[in-house]
């Protein structure tokens, strides 16, 4: 804890917001370079002579020259991806005493929960309406409850809907309070390995390609980008990809006109915490979320469809005032990679209520239609690659588990477990696959997690 | 005295089988399987002489050896009705026409045409259905299969001893056997040769009527929606209501309790229908066929049972959660045969559920799983 406290004190002394974002993350070397540059030109700005090593076209092939990458940062636990799993992992590892750094590709936290506008949280409850998602996930719900128009339907047995903006704010608050180092606008693109052991990850950002070294890496990218880059075996799935949008002015619908109209709009979406605003889901076709061609094609097609359906809505008498608040910044990727881990989640185990000695979390049901199911620690650990743990939708599971594992509550749970396990591995100086699972379970329970 | 002891023994053993107290699975078929009336009628109707027919042989032999041997030494129903008749000792037995002969011949004639019309009048089956229905859990619907014995009890109060002598088709069968034995067995001319042409004429007439009735029933067009979903391996809907003896075995053997007595149709009254509000037909179970004494539900090995459709799931996308912008895959996840897939139309952005008819045996797991208030996926009869 000593390191974390001193870091927090340091940030406070610098008058920083407490977020180790952008400015705080700039390495000292870069600052020195800027100081050496020539006198600033009149009118402001700065002349720069880039010293890059661009790719070379050689004999019809594009060659990336070998080069040394600047090390941006060193940390105990590096969490890649700032969605529900990544944020839960970062908070859990930090609370367990590790020095933690979280890296996020967009400018905010929440992943699909905010950027994908998947604002409905399904899977917190099981048969009988009992809530099984506790720990950090429950804490987030409780904090949203305290925010004005942060969440609706937040009661046992129900599926709550959150406001994405309230959520973005709340997650930053939690990360800031915990004292986690943050790098935003950083896209984790490669693993740094030493044999079969992961030692950190490489990021692409406006600062170029840089490295962060870490004792343990938590892959919360959703797509398993980092474990895949490190060479961990996995399942590659095609799955439905949609695009969510929000509609506004639904409280300004002319009910009298709508009543006599011949037809009703096809889908006006589900209620959100903001009056008059709904969120509209989209199934979309099965496609490869790891193919930029598929992603591009769908992004273009989906936006076209959303606008067309808005026009249809506006043509319906009474609905002329409806407008699109926003389309989701992120395409709705549901599943892409599933780790082939030490243990694998199976649908049969869910239905058979299989219990695992290394249980680190419990999953729920969509419509309280199945019992709780245990998630073993082995589902987060790759079979051969060391020092990387999977968290979120890309953990080890069979294809049939995709529907159950991909929703937000299991992401909290696997994130929470991965964070605690990573911190224990760092503290005990062992590989994550060798951690004392009893210790992890004890810490998880102390942090409020439900393990069945 | 010996007769009463014998019949008491059969009653106790038969009741034990109906209550499934015996450790052997085959014992659950119970007394109806031993009835030659059931055995012969269903063998003729199904054009198959299998184990079912063999099981009927001992009682047949008994009936051939002794006049009304089954009534005297084996029938628990007769014993029960005897006790009922004693409640009105002074009532005079009334002469009825030989209804049992007609029932027997109609059934055999019908069986020749594929539909054993009145097989469910078998006294063993009626007794077995009554006792079996008392096996817990006792429900109102289960008790419906028990109506046979009380009904006959009431009948015997009004007309003492009339059932056994004049109405029971199994009794009539034994009388026919006795006549046959006397006619063919002895070289001497028959004691009443004058009666023979009329008996023969009546028999031919009754069997012809039965065949005609059966064929009329089999040919009658049915509205598709009116047909219920029957147990897996059941005969086709035209023949099933006739081949089922209403013993209730299948309903009690079903571990998920999806089989219930049919109360909606007249022809199939009290025959089993599958209903998926509380369970589905398990992929690892073929119990109903194993305990069916009449062969109305085929005895299928588990592999063939899985490939034998009892129905097919059909989707109404207008009711499906996917049409209403919701995420749902309940039916897909619960389908044990992986028969359901989604198809997305990139033109109009609609999603359709598709059921692979080659894989779907109509087990109802999807219907059970569907979370919509009005089920979007429902098993229809094949």
Question: What order do the strands of the largest sheet of chain B run in, or round the barrel if closed?
Answer: 1-2
What is the percentage of strand-forming residues of chain A? 15-25%
**Number of helix segments of chain B?**
18
Uncertain runs of chain B are: none
Please provide the ordered H/E string of secondary-structure elements of chain B: HHHHHHHHHHHHHHEEHHEHEEHE
Name the largest protein-protein interface in this structure: A-B, 22 and 17 residues
* C-alpha geometry of chain B: elongated
- Measured distance between first and last alpha carbons of chain A: 29 Å
Helix content of chain B: 40-55%
Q: How many strands, which pairing sense, and closed or not: the largest β-sheet of chain A?
A: 7 strands, mixed
What's the overall geometry of chain A?
A: globular
- Cα-based radius of gyration of chain A, to the nearest Å: 23 Å
Give the total of beta strands of chain A: 22
Layout: helices, strands, pairs:
The complex is a heterodimer of chains A (452) and B (382).
Chain A: H1 2-14, H2 22-25, H3 28-36, E1 56-58, E2 61-63, E3 71-80, H4 84-95, E4 100-103, H5 135-146, E5 151-152, E6 161-162, H6 164-178, E7 181-183, E8 187-194, E9 197-205, E10 208-219, H7 225-230, E11 234-236, E12 239-242, E13 245-248, H8 255-260, E14 270-271, E15 278-280, E16 286-287, H9 292-315, E17 323-327, E18 332-333, E19 337-339, H10 347-351, E20 359-363, E21 373-376, E22 388-390, H11 402-405, H12 408-428, H13 437-446
Parallel strand pairs in A: 3-4, 3-10, 4-7, 10-22
Antiparallel strand pairs in A: 1-2, 5-6, 8-9, 9-10, 11-19, 12-16, 12-18, 13-15, 13-17, 14-15, 20-21
Chain B: H1 2-18, H2 36-46, H3 51-65, H4 69-73, H5 76-85, H6 99-112, H7 123-133, H8 140-144, H9 148-158, H10 162-167, H11 169-185, H12 196-219, H13 240-243, H14 249-253, E1 259-261, E2 272-274, H15 287-291, H16 302-306, E3 312-315, H17 330-334, E4 340-345, E5 350-355, H18 365-369, E6 377-380
